[in-house]
């Protein structure tokens, strides 16, 4: 498995559609200060489901949409498309090539697609979590992040290890199941009240 390409459309400084093609092995992105190197990395974590504006170096989520320059009007949507080579089957999906896309409009909300089919954030997270990539998998090491790991509390360090061991997916499923259980309990209580009233 390796990242094959990344397309940015209206994402941060990339107003026009821009595709970066990668080869297996090491890729270096070089360029002058402020030319958009970190924006490429932001696009990668965004398409994999990043939810924190701060992690994307913005104040709010809409800050990822091209905000305009003196010569170009702002855009109303941002889109990032990531293509992953899956010939080794590392991702639990029956395709040799997997495309994940995320689109966001100024009025908020994100649409995800996996191989052209509408998907939920959870689907994207689950698809990526077994492979060791994806949100909170620490495959993207930002500036200053090494320091924060070295200075982490034992609980935080345990969190990092749990993520690396693939526990995160099951923790998320457990949380979802507990929320459902809670909602069901509320419904049962309401039903009992109604039954008591009817009697
Ligand atoms: P450095 O080498 O200094 O870290 P860099 O190449 O990593 O720089 P980035 O931080 O990726 O550069 O890009 C910063 C540029 O992106 C700035 O010029 C900023 O104005 C622009 N930018 C960020 N968000 C947007 C946006 N929403 N719309 C338009 N431009 C944006």
TrEMBL record:
Transmembrane segments: none annotated. It is found in: Cytoplasm. It comes from the Bacteria. ATP binds at residues 32-39. Residues 167-199 form a coiled coil. Contains large globular domains required for ATP hydrolysis at each terminus and a third globular domain forming a flexible hinge near the middle of the molecule. These domains are separated by coiled-coil structures. Belongs to the SMC family. Required for chromosome condensation and partitioning. Homodimer. This is Chromosome partition protein Smc. The gene is smc. The chain holds residues 1 to 199 of 1196 of the full protein.
């Amino acid at each position: 498995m390796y990242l094959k390409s990344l397309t940015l459309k209206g994402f941060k400084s990339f107003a026009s559609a821009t595709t970066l093609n990668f080869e297996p092995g090491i890729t270096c992105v070089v360029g002058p200060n402020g030319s958009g190197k970190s924006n490429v990395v932001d696009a990668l974590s965004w398409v994999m489901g990043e939810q924190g504006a701060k992690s994307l170096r913005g104040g709010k989520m809409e800050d990822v949409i091209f905000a305009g320059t003196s010569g170009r009007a702002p855009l109303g949507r941002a889109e990032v498309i990531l293509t992953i080579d899956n010939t080794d089957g590392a991702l639990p999906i029956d395709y040799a090539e997997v495309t994940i896309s995320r689109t966001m409009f100024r009025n908020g909300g994100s649409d995800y697609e996996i191989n052209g089919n509408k998907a939920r954030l959870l689907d994207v997270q689950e698809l990526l979590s077994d492979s060791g990539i994806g949100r909170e998998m620490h495959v993207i090491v930002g500036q200053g992040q090494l320091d924060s790991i070295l200075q982490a509390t034992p609980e935080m360090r345990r969190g990092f290890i749990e993520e690396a061991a693939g526990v995160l997916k099951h923790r998320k499923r457990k949380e979802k199941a507990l929320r459902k259980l809670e909602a069901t309990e509320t419904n049962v209580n309401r039903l009992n009240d109604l039954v008591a009233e009817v009697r």
